[in-house]
Amino acid sequence: MSIEVGINMEFVRRSEKPFAAGVEMAAGMGYKYVEPMLHNGRELMSEAGYYHSVSMEEDPHFIKDILDKHGVRPSAVSAHCPLMRPEISVMYLQRAIQYASVLGAPVVCTDESYRPEWVSLEEAWPIMTYTLKAVLRVADRYGIYIGIEPHQSISKTTDGLLRIASLVDSPWLRINYDTGNAYLAGEDIYAALERVGNRLVHMHAKDISVAHSEAERGKVTGTPVGCACGDGVVDWSRVISIIRRHGFNGVLSVECGSPEEGARSLAHLRAVIAS
To answer: Which of 118, 209, 251, 254 is most exposed, with minimal Cβ within 10 Å?
Structure first.
C-alpha cells in the first residue's frame, strides 16, 4: 500500500449526524478509508443519531456491514483513554483491539490522556508501562498496532512521545502522529517527523488556520479538529516528502470540522501525493 488519504469521523461531529450517515458522506466525497471512534457503554447523543461515535456494545459485524455497504475500509479506530488509569484503559483498549480486528482496522489510536492529580510524573512511567504491557499482549495476539498520539502534557513534546512509545519493547507499539496537535503545542513538526518517521504507523492529517495558530500556539497541547488541509499553516508537500523518505506506507487520516473541509482536504492531499 502506498500513502493513502482517509478521514476521521470527527468531520461530522458538528453536523449532528450518526456514524452511518458520516460513512455515506465520506464515501460520497471519494474517501476509501475512515477512522471510527469507539466508546464503552451507551450514551444519549449517539443512540439518538446525533453523534458519530460507535458503542462497543454494538456487535462489530453490524458496523463492518456499514463500511462494506459504502466500499470504505477503516484505517484505524480512535480509542483515546488515560494510560495512567489502568483500571480504565486496560479493559477499554483490549476491547478496542478486538473490535478493530473484526472491522479490519490495523491500528488502535490512543494517547496518554490526562495525568491524575494523585499521580506524580515519576509514578506515571511505571503505571503507563504496566498498562501498555497488558494491552500489547492482546495487540500481539490479534496483530493490531497501538499508535500513540501527541496530545497531552507528556506526548506534546517529541521527546515525551518517543519515550511513551518506547516503554515496552514491542513491534506493535508505534506512533500515530498528529500534525495539528504537535504544531499547536509548539513543536517543529518537520523535525519531529524526521525523528518519529521509522515508528510511524498512522497519521492524523490536521491543518491549523493562521488565526487558530496565532490564538493558541504554545498555549494548548492539541485540538479536536483543524481546518481543511491546504488552508492552514502545515506544508503538506514537506510532510509527505519526509514520511515517504522514511518508508511510510499507510493512511493520512484527515481531522477537520465539516464535510466541506473534508472534501477540500481530500483534493489537496491527493494532489500533493500525486505530485
So the answer is: 118
- Cα angle, residue 129 at apex, residues 125 and 134 outer, rounded to 5°: 155
Give the angle subtended at the CA of 47 by the CAs of 43 and 49, to the nearest 5°. 130
Output the average pLDDT for the chain: 97
Rounded-to-integer distance, Cα 247 and Cα 269, Å: 18
Q: How many CB atoms lie within 10 A of CB 245?
A: 11
User: Residue 113: pLDDT band by 50, 70, 90 thresholds?
Assistant: very high
Residue 11 cell numbers, joined? 468531520
CB-CB contact of 157 with 129 (8 Å): no
Q: Tell me the backbone φ, ψ of residue 199, rounded to 5 degrees.
A: -105, 0
Taking the C-alpha atoms of residue 94 and residue 83, their distance in angstroms, rounded to an integer, is: 12
Residue 1 has a pLDDT of: 54
Question: Is 4-274 CATH 3.40.50.2300?
Answer: no
Cβ pair 138, 94 in contact under 8 A: yes
With 70 as the cut, is the pLDDT of residue 206 above it? yes
Whether pLDDT at 103 is above 70: yes
Which residue intervals of 104-247 are DSSP H helices? 121-142, 158-164, 179-184, 189-196, 210-216, 236-245
Are 186 and 153 within 8 A, CB to CB? Answer: no
- 178 φ, ψ (degrees, to nearest 5): -110, 110
Neighbours of 267 (CB within 10 A): 16
Domains of the chain, by residue range, sit at 4-274
